[in-house]
Design goal:
heterodimer, A: 260 residues, alpha+beta, Beta-Lactamase, Arc Repressor Mutant, subunit A, five-stranded antiparallel sheet, 5 strands, 55% helix, 14% strand, B: 148 residues, 5 helices, 38% helix
Chain lengths: 260, 148
């Protein structure tokens, strides 16, 4: 009510969430997100979900630590594109408080509850506030890969304190579900991308499965009816396909991208 | 997609059992930070990754054409844009990468030329790589106007 009065005709979050269709509209979209077959479909559905939730902006970010030397940050954007430019220009992935939160916590929080720990994070918060995230909900999408692969959804509003009223309880649940579905889609997409790029065969994946099970070259050779040296040779080729320095890292990459 | 070479197309492999006498090799825990490489191996890996860059660029161009997307990239392959006109608008995937280190991939859809122009105006390559920037703007507007 407070927000409604302060922002003219715009309804507050509590008013929006009181509508019986509020949750239903978002829940209807969720299964289609996880199973979307194209990138444009998922971005479009994400935008629709953001609108149905009453937010003005949305960003889904995933972090993947490929190995000791490489990390990938991927984002799906349903927000002011200038925010994306600022993020890239300032290299914010190293100072992103939303990602930091998702790295260490699994709980959904509001930006008002998030502690900013450095000047860079403060700059991030200030610019984000001006570009659609004056009030925000940060929903981590945790995975079994712990800190090696994480996802985080941020829903934003131009209105300060928008997410601080009674309607938040419903948004918290829906945001978490949306974050998990977006992460599901992203994992499928990066898996396809890796397979297309690396041209791994079913035999390569089987070899990686053996390594993941802790088998030695001799044991693998015995199981596949080939020499241990041939196994080592094949592992070298598989590692090269995955740009991995060794077979243990190759297994790590295969597991992170959901190949095993 | 034709590029989708899924190993799952083969009959699903039976789970490989881990019996105690066979588990001699150490297994990295996936939920732990990546194992750091030794100095020599790290240097070798950096050299390998740098050497593989031109190959990666050629592959990306080919994939882009196959997927109906136009790929624009800087000479040194540090930044690339994939543009595709879709039913919901212009889909752009912006990739910023270093040979070793972080890679940032941003995916967005532009429904109208005004938003696209606003994004272009804020794009960091505007002054860093004006040739690529001009190409990006031109191709983006053409795609949005349905000329491509």
């Amino acid at each position: 009510m407070k927000h409604c009065a302060a922002n003219g005709d715009l309804p507050s979050l509590a008013e929006l969430t009181r509508s019986p269709e509020y949750s239903a509209r978002v829940i209807d979209i969720l299964p289609a997100i996880g199973d979307a077959d194209t990138t444009e479909t998922v971005v479009d559905l994400f935008q629709q979900a953001v609108n149905h939730l009453g937010a003005d902006a949305g960003v889904f970010m995933s972090y993947l630590r490929d190995d000791a030397t490489r990390a990938t940050y991927r984002s799906l954007l349903a927000c002011d594109p200038v925010w994306a430019s600022e993020y890239a220009k300032r290299g914010w992935y190293d100072h992103d408080p939303w990602l930091r939160h998702a790295t260490h916590e699994t709980e959904t929080v509001r930006s008002s509850e998030l502690k900013v720990t450095s000047a860079d994070e403060e700059a991030f918060a200030d610019v984000s506030a001006a570009l659609g995230f004056a009030s925000a909900v940060i929903a981590p999408a945790p995975t079994c890969a712990g800190q090696s692969r994480i996802g985080v959804l941020c829903l934003g509003s131009n209105r300060t304190g928008f997410f601080d009223d009674d309607g938040y309880a419903k948004v918290r649940v829906l945001a978490r579900a949306l974050a998990m579905e977006l992460h599901r889609w992203l994992l499928q997409a990066i898996r396809k991308e890796l397979l297309a790029k690396s041209r791994l065969t079913a035999a390569d994946v089987e070899l990686l499965r053996h390594e993941a099970a802790g088998h030695t070259s001799k044991v693998i050779g015995g199981a596949l009816n080939i020499e241990a040296k041939t196994v080592d040779c094949r592992f070298q080729r598989v590692s090269a396909k995955l740009d991995a320095p060794d077979r243990r890292t190759a297994v790590r990459i295969a597991r992170l991208y959901g190949l095993l | 997609m034709s590029t989708d070479r899924r190993p799952s197309a083969a009959p699903p492999a039976a789970p490989i059992e881990v019996s105690p006498p066979f588990t001699k090799r150490r297994i990295d825990h996936i939920d732990e930070p990546a194992r750091p490489l030794g100095a020599k191996r790290a240097a070798l890996q950096v050299r390998r990754l740098r050497a593989s860059q031109p190959v990666a660029r050629a592959a990306a161009k080919k994939m882009g054409i196959d997927a109906g997307a136009l790929i624009l990239e800087s000479k040194e392959n540090s930044i690339a844009f994939s543009l595709r006109a879709t039913a919901v608008g212009l889909l752009i995937e912006r990739t910023q990468r270093q040979p070793v280190g972080s890679r940032l991939v941003q995916t967005m859809v532009f429904a109208d030329p005004t938003t696209f122009e606003r994004w272009c105006a804020s794009e960091p390559i505007r002054f860093d790589n004006p040739v690529l920037y001009d190409q990006l703007r031109r191709e983006g507007h053409e795609a949005l106007c349905g000329k491509r």
